[in-house]
Design a protein that fits this description.
Elements: H1 2-6, H2 14-31, H3 52-64, E1 71-75, H4 113-118, H5 121-126, H6 140-150, E2 154-159, H7 165-168, E3 176-178, E4 181-188, E5 194-195, H8 197-205, E6 219-223, H9 237-243, E7 246-250, H10 259-264, E8 271-276, E9 292-295
Helix pairs in contact: 2-3, 2-6
Length: 299
Amino acid sequence: MFTRLYFIGPSYCGRCFKAVACSFLQLTTISFGVQTSSRCRMSSDSETSSGDETEFSRAVDILAAEHVKRIVVLTGAGISTASGIPDFRTPGSGLYDNLSQYKLPWPEAVFDLEYFYSNPVPFYTLAKELYPTGRYRPNIAHHFLRLLYDQARLLRVYTQNIDSLERMAGIPSDKLVEAHGTFLTATCTVCRSKVSSKVVKDAIDASTVAKCPECHNVVKPDSVFFGENLPERFWEYAKDLAQTDLVIVMGTSLEVYPFAGVADSVPRFITRILINRESVGSFRYRNRPGDIVLLETNP
């Protein structure tokens, strides 16, 4: 449905793309709780705007600028909450606030590699909330990424998410860097055999721990835990940042390194757009004049 909604064709005019991009950006910001009174205006509109409208209009203008053809997007758990998947740090509803039932020594232990080796049960219990089953579908934020891809403006998506919703939205693997891994592949913790994702899914559905078909030891999905290295492909981000015209940051707390460091590594002459519930990372300091910040509650 969404593909038909926004497909304009390879010979779209700049004005058409700006109108569609504006609508998608507006819907995407609303999905983050950003309430803007802005309406989508073309550059010829004579009405003036201020405050939140100015920030939104700046975002639309740079997004639709003719020279902006290599956009890098950084995404976190916040882009998937509209799909029904909880994020990690939102007070009251985030996963870390609802882990008391697992009797963990500290909240992040559920994703700690050493703790998983000693007790994989909490992770497999929590995995029911995160596994990319059919009940979770891409939302407007994911389709916004697809819009950028379809119009040949997407250089790369770097995501912290393991829900694979970017893939489901149609972002091809060569445009996607899953910095924190994926549930779609899995590995035995002992013999290191690759294990079918069906083994993991069946275990999660049965509320058990997945076991290796070869040696019967615990299987771990190929999502990155604390204490593990990020995929080698992630470390090529510097090459992408050297080519990019625009960086968009959506739905992330920018608290987990080294992923958070990507936003700080963007050259200062490149515009960064933050779409989030709150200001995060170096966006808090407002020391880069080119930054555009769209928040749930703008200061």
